[in-house]
Specification:
Layout (H helix, E strand, L loop, with lengths): L12 E5 L4 H12 L3 E7 L14 H4 L3 E5 L4 H8 L4 E4 L6 H6 L1 H22 L3 E5 L24 H20 L2 E7 L1 E3 L8 H10 L4 E4 L5 E2 L1 E3 H13 L7 E4 L5 E2 H12 L4 E4 L13 E2 L4 H7 L7 H12 L5 H8 L1
Parallel strand pairs: 1-2, 1-4, 2-3, 4-5, 5-6, 6-11, 7-10, 8-13, 9-14
Antiparallel strand pairs: 9-12
């Protein structure tokens, strides 16, 4: 299949797994703006909810083929992949703290689920697959900035499951010629991100008046990319003329510590607060990743991509989105 240029997805039949999630819902919106024909696979639930897609405008929802299912179900995946040209695979369990409690769930979803997607794409033929990785696969790096050639190190059940999924994708490209390429974003943030993530955790507490904000470790450093920039990377990865098995990471090439991030969030919200370590938010010592800092030159060279939003601007936009949704009850629990 040949897709040329950044307008190459217009009119294309696209499947997004994990479309109900944080990045997935933003990607769906971008694909609709690109005039793509989008099937959105969302995890089944008894409420019939499509996650963050429920917040889309009625005219946007009317353009989608909305489906509830589970990537652990091979038949459901095969049905969703049928007749599409491009698959963006974002469905995954991503909560690192939960991976310590329920590692088998991460194996089932992130590894077996990815295998189901690969098999469906392989059988369909002439389908391009963009697999979603994570910078967590590097663990605490041996050298920084981190390039795509850096060794992989699973320091949590989550990161180990994503390493396995990435390696399956590479194996299917080598073994069966599946047109799969892997996109590896560093830390993405913005509206709709899980309240358990560090930026919504900080901003959510500050916006509800907390003067003591409970966090985990303050010294790890992270390379933070605003969600619209990450989504642009997905689009560019799908249309790029790259061989099967290609890998490209997305990052700004700059990193801040969680402590520095906290100070920035205080400045954005205008709240004078203090960060307090919460032992329940600490990773096991050997599982903590000290720094994640990207070397973004491959993304610029092969995708023509680079981050455009500054951290300050992104934090302001995230705070504006969070402000009317701030959970006073949650803040009260944090204050205790």
């Amino acid at each position: 299949m040949r897709i040329d240029g950044l307008n190459g997805l217009s009119g294309r039949r696209i499947l997004v797994t994990g479309a109900d999630g944080f990045i997935g819902s933003h990607l769906v919106e971008r694909l609709l703006a690109e005039k793509a024909d989008v099937t959105a696979l969302c995890v089944y639930n008894s409420n019939g909810s499509y996650g963050w897609l429920d917040e889309l405008r009625p005219d946007q929802l009317a353009q989608l083929d909305l489906r509830l299912g589970d990537i652990r179900d091979a038949r459901a995946v095969r049905s969703a992949v049928q007749d599409v040209e491009v698959v963006f695979h974002l469905a995954a369990l991503i909560a690192i703290p939960y991976s310590y409690q329920a590692p088998e769930s991460f194996i089932d979803t992130n590894i077996s689920g990815t295998l189901n997607v690969l098999e469906a794409v392989r059988d369909a033929g002439e389908v391009r697959l963009v697999n979603t990785s994570t910078s967590e696969v590097y663990g605490t790096p041996e050298t920084v900035p981190i390039t795509e050639e850096h060794p992989l190190r699973g320091q949590s059940p989550y990161s180990a499951s994503k390493i396995a999924a990435d390696q399956l994708c590479h194996a299917y490209a080598c073994s069966f010629g599946v047109d799969v390429r892997t996109l590896r974003p560093f830390n993405t943030y913005g509206p709709r991100q899980s309240a358990r993530a560090v930026i919504p955790t900080i901003l959510g507490q500050l916006l509800t008046g907390a003067r003591e904000v409970r966090l985990g470790s303050l010294w790890p450093r992270r390379d933070l990319t605003f969600v619209s920039d990450t989504v642009d990377g997905f689009i560019r990865m799908a249309v790029a003329d790259l061989p099967p098995g290609s890998l490209v990471q997305l990052g700004t090439g700059e990193a801040v510590s969680i402590g520095e991030l906290f100070d920035l969030c205080c400045a954005v919200t205008g709240v004078d607060a203090t960060a307090v370590t919460d032992s329940q938010r600490l990773r096991p010592a050997a599982s903590e990743v000290e720094v994640l800092l990207s070397e973004p030159s491959r993304a610029k060279e092969q995708l023509g991509w680079q981050a455009t939003r500054t951290l300050a601007d992104g934090l302001h936009e995230t705070a504006r989105w969070l402000a009317p949704r701030a959970d006073v009850g949650q803040a009260a629990r944090y204050h205790r």
